[in-house]
Design goal:
There is one protein chain. The chain is an alpha/beta fold. It folds into three domains: 77 residues, Arc Repressor Mutant, subunit A, CATH 1.10.10; 125 residues, 2-Layer Sandwich (Nucleotidyltransferase, domain 5), CATH 3.30.420; 153 residues, Nucleotidyltransferase, domain 5, CATH 3.30.420.40. 40% of the residues lie in helices and 20% in strands. It has a five-stranded mixed beta sheet, sandwiched between helices. The protein is globular, with a radius of gyration of 24 Å. Bound molecules: zinc ion. Zinc ion binds next to loops. This is N-acetylglucosamine repressor. Pfam families: HTH_24, ROK. InterPro entries: ROK.
């Protein structure tokens, strides 16, 4: 027989699971009546009534007008007050901080962005993050309506612990960002790596919604990536899984040292920062040099295409995904040239049995600050033990 404390814990968990299941159903299926909630959850009418009363008290849920025409006592439809609940999303990037205040219908209420040439110390990014949050807070109509802060971070993130493990561009190592922000704002704070977050959103309701096994690669300032296997985000033993930027891709005259300590990593050339640092090219003007037939630019582009194509071909062979999704600034700017070549090389080099793979790309890299706000909404309606990630 379990100890009393264990029983209390499991009762509490069961209660919170039931409560969250009801809340999520009102959000996804509302307007919905108490009777329908009982039918869909298998909970008793009394339990539903108790749970709904708590939600009404907390102002999470609203009773709407009963539908006319039905006979007898009309059931009262319930909806979540999604236009009176808000989330702040912050994109913490190497070159900028971008924030968005959104409501629970994912509508953007206010945006704010600060460009940052360089972070001078490890507390410098936090100063900009605070400035951004403080600005957005002024646009929350009523205190108490803000339900949390979500952060998308370019770097290795331990989402469970709420810490940034390593981000060279942000000068963060073992940085307890969640703890710092929660003590400043007294709100729940959620963190996720930028590519993982993008992949989660695309898997939930985007281009990867029908996919079970997929890979996302974000060719951006650096290179980020995410692996989803059997609908689960795979983060690895130390959160490095999907960091395709450190795939060994270059040799010979294109071999450059990487900030990770190794050499020849894909990010040393096939990224916005790599093109600049080791190739000497700005992403904005690289395309016109290719158009003009600049021999060095053309040779570098060919080397990048070959290296990235073979790397992705190997990834497809190893993970056997049904979809691969490309995104990031490099894809936004050079995608029209790069993607058809990549596609040819990939399909010429993967095993026949992998050729059902679908290669997709996003027309433009999504705004990660609104995605980070979405993280708050997802977590708000999360049912314990059913969470998609982690
Ligand atoms: Zn590296």
């Amino acid at each position: 027989m379990p100890l009393k404390s264990e029983r209390t814990t499991s009762n509490k968990l069961l209660k919170s699971i039931n409560q969250q299941r009801v809340l999520r159903l009102i959000y996804t299926d509302g307007p919905i009546s108490r009777v329908e909630l009982a039918e869909k959850t298998g909970l008793t009418q009394q339990t539903i009534t108790n749970i709904v009363n708590r939600f009404l008290e907390d102002d999470y849920v609203l009773e709407t007008e009963p539908v006319s025409g039905s006979s007898g006592r009309k059931p009262i439809p319930l909806i979540v007050r999604s236009n009176e609940m808000f989330a702040i999303g912050i994109e913490i990037a190497v070159k900028y901080i971008r924030g968005a205040l959104i409501d629970f219908q994912h509508r953007v209420i206010k945006e704010f962005k600060i460009d940052v040439p360089v972070y001078e110390s490890k507390d410098h990014p936090l100063d900009f993050v605070r400035q951004t949050i403080d600005e957005l807070l002024q646009h929350v109509p009523k205190t108490g309506q803000l339900k949390g802060i979500g952060c998308s971070i370019q770097g290795l993130v331990d989402a469970k612990q709420g810490a940034v493990i390593y981000s060279p561009g942000l000068r963060w190592r073992e940085y307890p960002l969640r703890e710092k922000l929660e003590s400043l704002y007294d709100l729940p704070v959620y963190l996720e790596n930028d590519a993982n977050l993008l992949a989660l959103v695309e898997n939930l309701n985007g281009r990867l919604a029908g996919s079970v096994n997929n890979i996302t690669i974000k060719f951006d300032y650096g290179i980020g990536g995410a692996i989803v296997l059997n609908n689960q985000l795979c983060t690895g033993a130390t959160h490095v899984a999907g960091e395709f930027g450190h795939y060994k891709a270059f040799a010979g005259k294109y071999l450059h040292k990487c900030h990770c300590g190794a050499s020849g990593c894909m990010t040393t050339l096939a990224s916005v920062s790599g093109l600049k640092r080791n190739g000497g090219y700005a992403i904005e003007t690289f395309g016109s040099l290719l158009d003009a037939g600049d021999p060095q630019a053309v040779a570098l582009f060919a080397a990048i295409e070959e290296a990235a194509g073979l790397a992705i071909s190997n990834l497809i062979t190893i993970f056997n995904p049904d979809h691969v999704l490309f995104t990031g600034k490099l894809v936004d700017v050079l995608g029209q040239r790069l993607l058809p070549l990549l596609r040819n090389r990939i399909f010429a080099t993967i095993p026949d049995s992998c050729k059902g793979v679908i290669l997709e790309h996003l027309p433009i890299t999504p705004d990660e600050s609104t995605l980070a706000g979405g993280l708050v909404i997802n977590r708000f309606f999360d049912v314990p033990l059913e969470s998609f990630s982690m």
